[in-house]
Amino acid sequence: MTFLPDHPLPKGPFRFIALDVETANCNRGSISQIGLACVGLDGGMQTFATYIDPAEDFAPFNTDLTGIDAETVRGAPVFAQAWVRLLPFLRGQLIIQHSGFDEKAINAASEQAGLPVPRLIWADSVKIARKAWPEFRGNGGHGLAHLKEALGLSFHHHDAGEDARAAAEVVLLAEERLQQSVEQITGRSAHLQMSLDL
């Protein structure tokens, strides 16, 4: 099991960071795992994941989906403890999520913990995939499960670290297919942090 603060964070600089979360129940703020996939300037990827104690009950549906239960997160940090270390690492980076769920979960967990909602630079790899592979619309869609099959990706779905890596790989493949950078595809880049901070 991997917990902050024992596990070191990847070393930058990075082009972008993909982020994925898993939750314990239907409450978006009940984060039980956070995964990161950090893509370097050379295209290399470093991954990181930590379990989070959501301090809430685990729903059987979520545990069946993720394999994470109360025993899995025993001894893990609560969200506020982990976020103190992760937020400075993420600020100023382009953060990729696959759908809008992860941003909403981070915001909900922050509010529950009495922390400010973080002002991060988010982009959505679902939207990126729609631009790169419009033929999947109505033909399997752009969820990770279908993209795994259609693009030949190899990952364990519903593990936050694995899903973050998959989202990062989707972006890299989309860049190659469209012959554009993620900044060009999304119109989002790290320099936007300055305007977010104002």
If you had to describe this structure to a student in words, what would you say it looks like?
The chain has 198 residues and is α/β, with parallel strands linked by helices. The protein has one domain (14-197): Nucleotidyltransferase, domain 5. Helices cover 38% and strands 18% of the residues. The protein has eight helices and five strands, in the order E-E-E-H-H-E-H-E-H-H-H-H-H. It has helices at residues 60-66, 79-90, 101-112, 125-132, 144-151, 160-178, 182-186, 193-197; strands spanning 14-23, 31-40, 45-51, 94-97, 121-124. It has a five-stranded mixed β-sheet with strand order 3-2-1-4-5. Strand 1 and strand 2 (31-40) form a beta hairpin. Helix 4 (125-132) packs parallel to helix 6 (160-178) and helix 5 crosses helix 6 (160-178). The radius of gyration is 16 Å and the shape is globular. The termini are far apart. One of its GO terms (molecular function) is 3'-5' exonuclease activity. It comes from Thalassovita mediterranea. This is Exonuclease domain-containing protein. Pfam families: RNase_T (PF00929). InterPro entries: Ribonucl_H (IPR013520), RNaseH-like_sf (IPR012337), RNaseH_sf (IPR036397).
